[in-house]
Recover the amino acids of this structure.
């Protein structure tokens, strides 16, 4: 027997510490048919911009949250009406709340229920009281507490903000324009920062405030790598559809060297050093024509060979540029490589990706005259393809000697890349 | 083997004048004994009529010991009488109707319904209200004496305890402290031979409780507790000794508990022969005889006194029954004392 | 302007005792080793020489005689200050305190103006019998008052109030603070009323209620949280019976988050009572569950590593504050 069910589309949690998201663009409009997993809308969060796939087949019934609005994780942003057999029940609500249309939980031990942290749906006594006193619809309040819970501060802030008029129309810009005291009259252009921009700004500032940044630069003779790449490149492309880049070689050499210099793959927590047993290698990807930056991680990079590394780099790069990254893609990185060298720079002072302690920067490959000594000690000038590698490291944990020895090993590894190495 | 001194009976010899008691005093003591017993007999009836809640304890057989010691105290002396010592309250002047009101949990009982039976005391009479943890009063009695010693006052503290209480550590600690500091306290042991159902051979291992005094560095005396004048004699001696700075004395008054531990106890464990033997030594009957023989008190006088006491107690009961029950809304009041106005004193 | 003298916590108590004994001849001290020895911790040093053997009385080893003696002499109008050598030994005098002293006024209308000084608290491998903080148990006995000063200033003022009070007062002086804490203490006499807390520091995000030596642990944790952008309001209760419920409620209205910290063990510690009353009276002010940090339900262990795990440390409190802040 056909039934009609309303399925909620909720703001997803893109990362553990992410508590809210902004609707960038609805890809479907009300009344339109949607298929399960079909992209329904684009959102922007602190961590990542992404598309949200539809949870079900059906008709997009009502759009609750409009473009440009920022809501807490878990907020219902739209409803899809399905026709047909009832779909799988939505997740059971925690017993502590009365909201929810799902089936009740099977009885759990009381202690376990009570030990569940509060989530979005839990309303504390003081929040209930304040909301009641001010006629606030808590569904519309973003929550900064555990699991997106609306806290006392949140509801008070909401009330304070509600006294300022909201913009009437929805613009295509991600955020409403900030209020300024005077309009610019000298030709200056004013634009609001995107969520990503703000997030990068905060991160960079915090990183410099946290780590004791120092940078060391190594010149690497990439002759061997150039030769081997020339040979393997067509094979990788035709047989595996993988573009083989210099970055893949550097990434391989880095991952191997980190095994011997593990503190560069560690984290500082208070007075403790947490050394990871795995390497989640982050690759910085420029997006939005250079106006944005995403840093997805390749998990367990220590287990990848050259082909695997090249394929992984290509994959994260493509997905980052086409906004198809998943939340776990931008979590848990332990070391980062950034490669601005494609445009000709030869030295960089990269900023560490917190909470990591080091970041490696690959500069441009430049043909330079270098001094070569033969085995009799006779010097001669030769032209070699030289790539500078710049390592910024957190001097709280990593001393110069440690850093340069790591880099020396990376260089050795690249300069002596053998034919048989894969 | 006994260590303490056994005293001689007074009944059979000695002129009361030697004790400094005139005829009025003697008849007064007799009257106090009559009132003591009369209150307890009346209370016994009221209890069985359901007019007294809780439990009901009497000191039947202990009238001479309690009245005798109390009669030897000065008004400024202080004491911690226990539940067999109704005679102390009576002798010190607590009105019978208020004692009955106390039993009945009425507002005019000295404890105003907050405590029952003999847990009463008027501090104006320098008596401290007892607790059910009987020997816990002993260190407090020593504390009273400590105050007198600190202030160099010629006042004495009288501490009552029984053969049962003697087994607890409080007794030891109190007597030890009193002995070490030679405090002006007299320990009166009401040895009525039964602590509930426990006879002496299971309560203490020494021959007499008075023997223990030597362990604390002071004198112990064993007295026939049914002989009011013997008790008075020893009590006076001990009290005046303390007053003069002679330190503590332990006066063991030996009696038999003539009723159960409480009214709900029929004391089946007390041998009948023992009860019969001690009934012959009833303190009131004994003193009545002595008065008639030694104090020229004739039948008319004595019966007249007895009638007067009866009437007094009938009136007392009526008055007690007219006393209101305490107000439950005041239940939480009085847990703490309110501060007195600040005391003027030179600042350091 | 003469700068106010600084005294240790111990000196403040000692000076306070001396001052009160001068001021009021009814005041006297009794306990073990208080006279010739000057007290196990030297709090009464010099008093015997100054006031004589009948105002500074060396008693036999008997908490019952000490407390009973205090009770009796208080009933006769003196103002005894009994010293028990360690708060751990108060259990020996339980009957005297709970049966006699606490209940006298209610039953007989008689005032028992006595103070029992109890060196309490751990942190120096004193083991199970020299380290306890048993104050919570006595808040449960109607008729007794319970005082727990944290600072030298409060120690002296609260002692004077305790002596003035016509009720039996248990004065828990934390022995680990004796010589480690110094503070400004006026030379002149002053009193601090019971039931009036001290706001150690104001804050907006979390209310932290505590007393005794834990005040310093709380301060350390609050300093850490301050640098993380969380402002903690610390309320030093000073007295537990009576306690300043009003101050706590006012603070909870402001912060909506409450953490209670005490060195006494957790189950049925006084923190439980505070939590229960705050929930009863300020349920609609709460934005998070009320948390308690207390010692675990064990006797106090001896080995330093165990004792450190037993007594709440700054990091324990800071961790709990962080959790509350993020709730």
């Amino acid at each position: 027997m056909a039934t009609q069910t309303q399925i909620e589309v909720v703001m997803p949690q893109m990362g553990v510490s992410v508590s809210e998201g902004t609707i960038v663009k609805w890809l479907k409009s009300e009344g339109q048919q949607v298929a399960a997993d079909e992209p329904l809308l684009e959102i922007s969060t602190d961590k990542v911009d992404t598309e949200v796939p539809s949870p079900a087949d059906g008709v997009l019934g009502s759009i609750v949250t409009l473009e440009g609005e920022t809501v807490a994780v878990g907020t219902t942003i739209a409803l899809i009406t399905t026709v047909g057999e009832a779909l799988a029940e939505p997740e059971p609500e925690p017993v502590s709340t009365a909201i929810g249309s799902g089936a009740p939980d099977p009885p759990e031990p009381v202690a376990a229920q009570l030990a569940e942290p509060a989530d979005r749906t839990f309303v504390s006594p003081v929040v209930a009281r304040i909301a009641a006193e001010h006629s606030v619809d808590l569904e519309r309040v973003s929550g900064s507490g555990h699991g997106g819970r609306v806290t006392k501060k949140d509801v008070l802030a909401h009330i304070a903000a509600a006294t300022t008029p909201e913009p009437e129309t929805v613009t295509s810009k991600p955020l409403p324009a900030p209020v300024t005291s005077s309009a610019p009259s000298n030709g200056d252009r004013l634009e609001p920062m995107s969520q990503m921009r703000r997030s990068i700004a905060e991160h960079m500032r915090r990183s410099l405030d946290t780590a004791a940044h120092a940078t060391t630069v190594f010149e690497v003779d990439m002759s061997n790598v150039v030769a081997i790449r020339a040979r393997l490149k067509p094979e990788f492309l035709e047989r595996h559809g993988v573009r083989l880049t210099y970055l893949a070689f550097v990434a391989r050499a880095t991952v191997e060297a980190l095994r011997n210099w593990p503190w560069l793959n560690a984290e500082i927590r208070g007075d403790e050093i947490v050394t990871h047993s795995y390497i989640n290698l982050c690759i910085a990807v420029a997006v939005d024509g250079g106006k944005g930056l995403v840093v997805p991680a390749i998990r367990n990079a220590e287990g990848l060979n050259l082909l695997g590394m090249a394929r992984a780099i290509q994959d994260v790069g493509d997905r980052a540029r086409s906004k198809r990254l998943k939340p776990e893609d931008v979590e848990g990185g332990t070391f980062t490589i950034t490669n601005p060298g494609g445009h000709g720079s030869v030295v960089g002072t990269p900023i560490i990706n917190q909470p990591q302690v080091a970041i490696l920067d690959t500069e441009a490959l430049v043909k330079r005259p270098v001094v070569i000594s033969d085995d009799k000690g006779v010097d001669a000038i030769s032209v070699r393809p030289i790539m500078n590698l710049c390592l910024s490291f957190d001097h709280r944990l990593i001393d110069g000697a440690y850093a340069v020895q790591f880099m020396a090993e990376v260089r050795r590894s690249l300069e002596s890349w053998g034919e048989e190495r894969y | 083997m006994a260590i303490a001194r056994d005293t001689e009976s007074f009944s059979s010899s000695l002129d009361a004048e030697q004790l400094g008691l005139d005829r009025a005093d003697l008849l007064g003591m007799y009257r106090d004994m009559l009132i003591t017993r009369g209150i307890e007999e009346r209370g016994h009836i009221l209890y069985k009529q359901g007019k007294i809640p809780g439990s009901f304890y009497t000191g039947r057989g202990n009238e001479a010991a309690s009245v005798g010691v109390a009669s030897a105290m000065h008004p400024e002396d202080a004491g911690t009488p226990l539940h067999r010592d109704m005679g102390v309250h009576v002798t010190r002047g607590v009105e019978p109707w208020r004692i009955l009101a106390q039993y009945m949990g009425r507002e005019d009982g000295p404890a105003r319904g907050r405590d029952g039976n003999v847990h009463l005391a008027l501090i104006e009479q320098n008596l401290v209200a007892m607790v059910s943890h009987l020997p816990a009063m002993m260190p407090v009695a020593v504390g009273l004496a400590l105050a007198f010693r600190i202030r160099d006052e010629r006042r004495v503290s009288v501490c009552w305890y029984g053969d049962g209480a003697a087994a607890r550590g409080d007794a030891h600690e109190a007597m030890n402290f009193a002995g070490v500091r030679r405090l002006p306290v007299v320990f009166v042991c009401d040895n009525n031979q039964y602590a509930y159902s426990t006879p002496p051979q299971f309560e203490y291992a020494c021959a007499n409780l008075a023997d223990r005094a030597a362990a604390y560095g002071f004198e112990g005396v064993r007295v026939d507790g049914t002989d009011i004048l013997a008790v008075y004699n020893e009590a006076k001696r001990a009290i005046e000794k303390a007053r003069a700075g002679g330190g503590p004395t332990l006066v063991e008054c030996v009696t038999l508990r003539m009723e159960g531990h409480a009214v709900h106890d029929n004391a089946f464990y007390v041998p009948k022969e023992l009860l019969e033997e001690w009934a012959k030594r009833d303190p009131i009957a004994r003193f009545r005889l002595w008065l008639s023989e030694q104090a020229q008190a004739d039948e008319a006088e004595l019966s007249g006194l007895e009638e007067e006491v009866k009437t007094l107690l009938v009136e007392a009961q009526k008055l007690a029954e007219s006393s209101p029950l305490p107000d439950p809304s005041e239940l939480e009041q009085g847990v703490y004392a309110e501060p007195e106005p600040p005391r003027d004193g030179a600042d350091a | 302007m003469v700068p106010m003298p600084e005294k240790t916590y111990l000196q403040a108590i000692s000076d306070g005792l001396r001052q009160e004994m001068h001021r009021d001849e009814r005041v006297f001290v009794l306990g073990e080793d208080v006279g010739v020895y000057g007290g196990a911790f030297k709090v009464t040093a010099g008093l015997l020489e100054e006031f004589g053997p009948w105002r500074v009385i060396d008693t036999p080893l008997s908490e019952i005689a000490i407390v009973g003696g205090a009770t009796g002499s208080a009933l006769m109008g003196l103002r005894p200050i009994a010293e028990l050598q360690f708060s751990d030994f108060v259990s020996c005098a339980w009957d005297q305190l709970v049966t006699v002293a606490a209940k006298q006024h209610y039953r007989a209308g008689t005032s028992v103006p006595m103070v029992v000084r109890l060196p309490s608290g751990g942190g120096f491998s004193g083991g199970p019998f020299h380290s306890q903080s048993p104050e919570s148990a006595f808040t449960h006995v109607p008729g007794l008052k319970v005082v727990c000063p944290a600072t030298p200033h409060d120690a002296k003022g609260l002692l004077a109030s305790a002596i003035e009070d016509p009720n039996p007062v248990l004065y828990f002086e934390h022995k680990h603070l004796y010589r480690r804490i110094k503070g400004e203490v006026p030379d002149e006499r002053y009193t601090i009323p019971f039931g009036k807390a001290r706001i150690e520091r104001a804050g907006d995000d979390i209310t932290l209620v505590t007393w005794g030596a834990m005040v310093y642990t709380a301060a350390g944790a609050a300093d850490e949280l301050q640098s993380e952008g969380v402002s903690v309001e610390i309320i030093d209760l000073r007295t537990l019976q009576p306690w300043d419920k009003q101050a706590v409620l006012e603070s909870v209205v402001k912060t909506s988050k409450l953490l209670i910290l005490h060195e006494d063990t957790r189950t049925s510690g006084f923190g439980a009572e505070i939590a229960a009353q705050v929930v009863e009276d300020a349920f609609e002010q709460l934005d998070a569950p009320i948390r308690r940090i207390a010692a675990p339900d064990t006797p106090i262990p001896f080995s330093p590593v165990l004792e450190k795990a037993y007594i709440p440390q700054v990091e324990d409190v800071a961790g709990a504050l962080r959790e509350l802040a993020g709730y």
